[in-house]
Design a protein that fits this description.
It is built from two helices and no strands. The protein is an all-alpha fold. It is elongated and about 40 Å long. The protein starts with 15 loop residues before the first helix and ends in a 7-residue tail after the last helix.
């Protein structure tokens, strides 16, 4: 199975554009196979997680946080 998300560890720099693209592709793929609403909750949760994750990663951290 092909990796669809980059490594998210301190040793790897996070490319926000790549992460955004990969999450969008994953969500689109799920929408494409969402027969009878089987993946609706997963799509909703991934969309919310994508927004939250990209927001957290793009926000500068405080020095003492």
């Amino acid at each position: 199975m092909k990796r669809c998300l980059p490594f998210l560890t301190p040793e790897h720099a996070v490319n926000l554009k790549e992460l955004d693209f990969n999450l969008s592709e994953l969500i689109s793929a799920l929408k494409g196979i969402n027969e009878n609403g089987r993946y609706t909750d997963t799509i909703f949760e991934l969309s919310a997680l994508k927004y939250e994750l990209l927001h957290k990663l793009s926000t500068p951290r405080e020095a003492n946080a």
